[in-house]
Amino acid sequence: MLTILFMFEIMKMTVRIKKYTLLIVTILFLISSSFIIHWLEPETFPNAFVGFWFVMTTVTTTGYGDYVPHTIIGRIFGLLLYLIGIGLIGIVIGKIVESFGIYRRLKEEGKLRFKGKGHYVIIGWSNKSKHTMNELLEIDQQAKILVIDSLKNAPFEHERFSYIQGDPTDKATLQKANVVAARAVLVFTRDNEVNSVAADGQSLLIVSAIEGFAVEMKTEIYTIVEILKDKHISNFKHANVDEFIVSDEALSDMMAKAAVDKGSSKMIMELLSSRSGVDIRKVENCDRWTTYNDAFEELKKVGANLISDGNDFNILTKLEERIPTNAELYVICSPESYKKIAGVD
């Protein structure tokens, strides 16, 4: 009875030991036990490896029975392995399971550092950002999405989704999200925001913090910002924002085009959505292409339609002109055609 109580006290002490200390103690216990049983019964356990085999099959309760001690002292030591080793291994396994639980909880709460690269960072969780995330996952089959927000738990579950809880104007949060290695950072306003000045002011504060962090890290971070009023764009110039998406302006333009050319809004919405089966994609300029017509004809063969050079959509009127070195060529094509373009340019 005293022995059992003594063992319980040892187990209680073991549970309170730190994980790394417990791991080291367990390893030392298993290795030393392997040499001890070899020393006690060298004929039954001719080397330490055979002793280790016996120790592991004993403490894991596997018990193959291919090696068993024959002497009294060897069997007493075997009993100690049962009493101490099985409890010790059980505690180690419990600690491992507990660690996985802690890791999962911290990940759901957005408290773990993201170590990936080439991901898309979305700042601000809303219906708009959720829709954008789904489109990114649909368009780019390798896309990894990371959301920064103040929610207590991750708002979405997906194998390529990560969450960081924190203030996007805080450098520690930006470091945790590894924004310097991100492919792009997208800043959204909240749903049903009526105060455009406050909303755009918050977005300005966020992108200023991001660009300031980029300067500090001596790198460039591609930023795309949703703005409610186009008149606020001038306030963002010093922040070096790469692209603006004006919510009010986009809606107004869509309504006007739908009124003049009925049904045009449906076509535009389908083109912007991955459901249509085609996307607007940017392609790299190829050394083989001298004129726009060279690019137009070669891309056409793989099912891609060259539509613009940057914001210039007058490609058909300038097919014989030379393509400048800084050209930004965009095409409309299916995902399959876009994969073929990799073999063209």
Blueprint of the fold:
Layout: H1 2-15, H2 19-40, H3 48-59, H4 72-108, E1 120-123, H5 127-139, E2 145-149, E3 161-165, H6 171-176, E4 184-187, H7 196-216, E5 223-227, E6 243-246, H8 247-260, H9 264-272, E7 279-283, H10 292-301, E8 305-309, E9 329-333, H11 335-341
Parallel strand pairs: 1-2, 1-4, 2-3, 4-5, 5-6
Antiparallel strand pairs: 7-9, 8-9
Helix pairs in contact: 1-4, 2-3, 2-4, 8-9
Count of runs of 4 or more consecutive helical residues: 11
Q: Which band does the percent of strand residues land in?
A: 5-15%
- Between the first and last Cα atoms, what is the distance in angstroms? 80 Å
The biggest sheet amounts to: 6 strands, parallel
How many whole angstroms does the radius of gyration measure? 32 Å
| Global morphology | elongated
The helix/strand series, from N terminus to C terminus, equals: HHHHEHEEHEHEEHHEHEEH
Count of β-strands? 9
- Architecture of the largest domain, according to CATH? 3-Layer(aba) Sandwich
Helix fraction bin: 40-55%
Strand order of the largest sheet: 3-2-1-4-5-6
Low-pLDDT segments? 1-7
Mean pLDDT: 83
Query: What structural class is derived from the secondary structure elements?
Result: alpha/beta
| Number of domain modules | 3
CATH level 4 superfamily of the largest domain: NAD(P)-binding Rossmann-like Domain
The CATH first-level class of the largest domain comes to Alpha Beta
InterPro entries: K_chnl_dom, NAD(P)-bd_dom_sf, RCK_N, Trk_Ktr_HKT_K-transport
Transmembrane segments: 20-39, 45-64, 76-97
Pfam families: Ion_trans_2, TrkA_N
Keywords: Ion channel, Ion transport, Membrane, Transmembrane, Transmembrane helix, Transport
